[in-house]
Design goal:
The complex is a heterodimer of chains A (about 280) and B (about 180). In chain A, about 0% of the residues lie in helices and about 50% in strands. Chain A has about 280 residues and is mainly beta. Chain A has one domain: monomeric porin ompg (Porin). Chain A has a twelve-stranded antiparallel beta barrel. Chain B has about 180 residues and is α+β, with helices and mostly antiparallel strands. Chain B is about 15% helix and about 50% strand. The two termini of chain B are about 25 Å apart. At the A-B interface, loops of A face helix 1, strand 1, strand 2, strand 3 and strand 4 of B.
Chain lengths: ~280, ~180
């Protein structure tokens, strides 16, 4: 009874306890990939993401190769969102005639309000299989063509423009060269900064912590822009990596930024809503 | 002492009177529809909060923009990211007053049609609107239903030229609130 009720103009709503409800943070990245690696973003329930990736040749070959555009390697792939926290996907790259598949699960989604959580936590598990005829003359078994990866992603959308993530990844290749190691640990860093409603700057870097010989391989660094036009997202970028799956870009990058051995590339993503959300009437 | 008691009683009476005049909802339903050549756009929100004072006729509404749910995840993303910019403008609000309150005694059971004048703030832009509202008082809970149209242009919600033909210029908004008495 002692509660005074104020009903002056303009603050009627103050009569209600205004505990902000829990609200999930969405749209940290435009795409489910930062550039090369998985991002903290999921594609949504019942959504099919048709992805066409291109990596061109080294730009330092000059005008004769039109700065690498004469040579293109590609990956074609499909991702499907089983629910808002679970995505499966597969693809095939021309490089190494390699198939890849993955399962990506969001354990926690960043949220605001009561019982909020400041980060999104995601796990991705994937595998690659090379189908090259002459994969290796000595080890001809199927197992030797296979590699696996296990990745964790911890990310946060700091504000409407800035999102950052850290993504440690363990890559295990069943078959490696004599001077190489089967298990490679790499630490991924990804970020996006929105420049406008539909354009964002993105950066994707993997720092190889141990594993294969450092004199032979480089850490993949990619920088680019995401451009969103309705149902399409175009990711245009420059990278020293040519690979388009985790095995290929983590353990197969030989180009060096220092020497200007860069490639132009793009990811094209087109989403289709396969299963509509049930009407909440 | 007697004066003090009198004052106390007066305060109590006025508080009681006020509480009886106040109604609220935290689960107000707001839907919108936009007819467009390519596909119809439709979304529902059940998280609007509102307070209605039937003694003064004042109404206030607050609508969290992220509470709108679309059939398609991509539409919802575009709505929040590109059109209403929910991070920048998280809430739409309305402050208004019932016209001709003398003809609309909402404390009595029955169905009433009234008009409400007020200020609608959406996407950071405020415009005056007038809309008819149907109130139904059924044993102390008041249902309010209203339908009106807003022009996207008025609220500076810009539609990129490449999809201009695919998205309607006007959006029809449907309000369905079930108010309960506010007790303190």
């Amino acid at each position: 009874m002692a509660t005074t009720i104020r009903a002056q103009d303009g603050d009627l709503l103050k009569n209600l306890d205004s505990e902000p409800p829990k609200e999930f943070v969405t749209n940290a990245f435009k795409s489910s990939r930062v550039i090369m690696g998985h991002s903290m973003e999921m594609i949504g329930a019942g959504v099919l993401d048709f992805r066409i990736l291109h990596r061109f040749g080294p730009t330092d070959q000059g005008i004769y190769d039109l700065f690498g555009l004469d040579q293109a390697s590609m990956r074609i792939g499909f991702d499907y969102g089983l629910n808002k926290d679970l995505t499966i996907g597969f693809g095939r790259s021309t490089l190494g005639k390699e198939f890849d598949g993955f399962i990506k699960y969001r354990v926690v989604q960043q949220s605001k309000g009561i019982n909020s959580f400041p980060f999104s936590i995601i796990f991705a598990v994937g595998s690659t299989v090379s189908t090259l005829k002459n994969f290796d003359s000595v080890k001809k078994s199927f197992e030797s063509r296979v590699a696996y990866y296990y990745q964790g992603i911890i990310g946060r959308k700091f504000n409407s423009r800035l999102s950052l993530q850290v993504s440690p990844i363990l890559l295990y290749r069943n078959f490696v060269e004599a001077d190489d190691k089967n298990a490679t640990l790499s630490l991924g860093f990804g970020g996006r900064y929105k420049l406008s409603k539909r354009v964002a700057f993105v950066l994707d870097y993997f720092m190889n912590v141990n594993g294969f010989p450092k004199e032979k391989f480089e850490n993949p660094l990619s920088v680019g822009v995401d451009i969103e036009t309705g149902g399409h997202v175009f990711q245009l970028h420059f990278s020293n990596a040519a690979g388009m799956n985790e095995r290929a870009f983590i353990a197969g990058t030989t180009g060096s930024w220092g020497k200007g051995e860069l490639r132009f590339g793009f990811n094209l993503s087109r989403v289709f809503t396969i299963k509509k959300r049930p009407s909440t009437n | 002492m007697k004066a003090a008691i009198n004052t106390m009683v007066l305060i109590l009476i006025s508080v009681v009177a006020f509480s009886q005049g106040m109604y609220y909802t935290k689960t107000g339903k707001v839907s919108f529809y936009s007819k467009a050549p390519l596909e119809d756009i439709e979304a529902k929100n059940r998280t609007a909060t509102s307070v209605l004072n039937i003694t003064t006729g004042q109404v206030e509404v607050s609508i969290p923009m992220k509470g709108f749910e679309f059939e398609k995840a991509l539409m919802q993303e575009h709505f929040n990211e590109n059109y209403v910019e929910s991070d920048k403008f998280p809430k739409a609000s309305f402050k208004g007053i019932i016209n001709d309150l003398s003809k609309t005694d909402l404390s009595v059971n029955g169905k009433y049609t009234a008009t409400i004048d007020g200020k609608l703030t959406l996407h950071g832009e405020t415009r005056y609107i007038t809309t008819p509202v149907t109130f139904t008082n059924e044993n102390g809970s008041i249902r309010a239903v209203a339908e009106f149209t807003v022009a996207l242009e008025d609220y500076k919600i810009s539609v990129p030229s490449i999809v201009k033909d695919k998205i309607g210029k006007d959006v029809k908004i449907l309000i369905e609130f079930n108010y309960e008495g506010l007790k303190h």
